[in-house]
Give the backbone structure.
Amino acid sequence: MQRLRLATVWLGGCSGCHMSLLDMDEWLMTLATLADLVYSPIADTKRYPEGVDLALVEGAVANEEHRELARLVRQRSRMVVALGDCAVTGNVTAMRNPLGPATSVLQQVYITHGGPRGEMPDEPGSVPILLDQVVPLHATIPVDLYLPGCPPAAPQIRELIEALLRGEHPAERSNFG
Ligand code: SF4
């Protein structure tokens, strides 16, 4: 069997979906015999590689870096899964949307509700360039499969990966829950 080139990506999320991945516990040892983890926040690789078979993407798209990475992930991955409610709907990450566009969010966070000095950060790069609205992953790139949940349970993630390892096409399975 050909080894799966697996990536996990962390966009605008709390990392709870990655914690759920790690909750697959001893099955991770089995997975390690079947797949190579070629990119992940829990791996050293900093550059998203070419030729990824499966990308599990946690989190919504909230800033320019997320958008850039999501586009790269789409270009270089055969299958992209929106992993968890933030990637699927925006969820918790999108709770800032009612505050208005990026300038209004920064104003309210740093000035209105900020510390006693109430200053905007002025160091270049100290704050990511926020998008005016947080959006789910599919609003930025085409997504092949959705695995909702906050977070999706480890057995659901395992079931999805096992199905893909068996060569099942995701379109044949609409629900891994
Ligand atoms: Fe965290 Fe839930 Fe969002 Fe996953 S879906 S990143 S667990 S808030």
